[in-house]
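Note to self: keep these together.
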Amino acid sequence: MGPLYILFDEDACLHSELYDAAGRSIEMNGGPASIKVFPPYFVCIPCGSSIRLEVTAYGWGVGKGAKTMIALHDNCWMIAQSDPLPYFLQGTFTANAPTGEYYDRLLRMMRDSFQACNVCPIEPVWAGTLKIPRTAIDILKRP
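Structure:
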């Protein structure tokens, strides 16, 4: 079996939610941002391996008095200095199958490149959704 490919779309792949200790959903409260997002691209996962995809967004402005910030491509939450509550993050990661003219051109270009180099084609492309279980985030600990 050869490698597996994922179409990684930083803008659309992640749907995350933040909850407090009582299970209440926390609304996004991020401030101004200047974030560079790349167009969707293919990620190659070699056979028998795993991969870590970066979904943290950089470029958010951190508000005065904020203890920490949870900044992802789909949401951003600032946690106040006065708030010692534990928080819980959960979500989904979705990779869609490539469709449309843009992806057809991209696939053709990549297939042509692979054939010229005599390496494997860019197939199969995985599409599906992974559930990210609710995970505790301890905002009082420092890395």
